[in-house]
Amino acid sequence: xxxxxxxxxxxxxxIAAANAGTTSQDLKTGYIVGATPIYQQMGLAIxxxxxxxxxxxxxxxxxxxxxxxxxxxxxxxxxxxxxxxVFASRGSRLSTFLTRGVLHVPTAGLSLISCLLxxxxxxxxxxxxxxxxxxxxxxGMMAVSGMCFALCGGNLAMTVSSFNFxxxxxxxxxxxxxxxxxxxxxxxxxxxxxxxxxPVTHALAGLRKAYNGAGFESVGxxxxxEALVALAYxxxxxxxxxxxxxxxxxxxxxxx
Length: 256
What we know:
By secondary structure, this protein is mainly α. It has one domain (54-251). 80% of the residues lie in helices and 0% in strands. The chain is built from 10 helices and no strands. The protein has helices spanning 3-33, 37-79, 83-88, 93-102, 105-121, 132-159, 163-177, 189-196, 201-211, 216-251. α2 runs antiparallel to α7 (163-177) and α6 packs antiparallel against α9 (201-211). The model is unreliable at 1-15 (pLDDT under 50).
């Protein structure tokens, strides 16, 4: 019950200990250039808080918007009684399946922009060192894998009556296992293994490097692994989608 709290406290203590060592050097340098110690401490605190939360929260914002939008779209097909029309149409099933996710990507992009603007304008985040080409590539791949994961889980949303159960269950996986909030190195071995198969995990690792100025040669492996995760989820999700179609055609189930 208290494990997440313990991990958060441990992370805070770790950051505090690391900054204790650098502070002594910063104060010496500040004295030489005539800086005021209190403002140095305030700047250090702001930097720690923003760097700890901004990258993780932007990643969670992209995942949350995509997951909620895709699941709501597929849930509405069931609740509004239109699922039978979807399966009776002559259109491409793959196109029908993918469009339930693609149309929500712009919303995730707007969420990302608002998060970055808030961090820059109100929290004073310094995004200068970022390699923006690599940063945008990581966010883009994160959106693709998050969409594929949501489409895969959306099959469950079409077969159960509780949207909230599916949504909060999926988002909990994002929150705990991807490293967006809790460092993956602090998780038990089994959860770390599961996290490897989660969307966002690998792109987020690359994103942190890209914000520190790393280029595509450093984040390319992370992007490749994220792409494989996305392909796996969209493949499994599409197979499940067709299975549900066959079952619905034979039984008329999944209609409220």
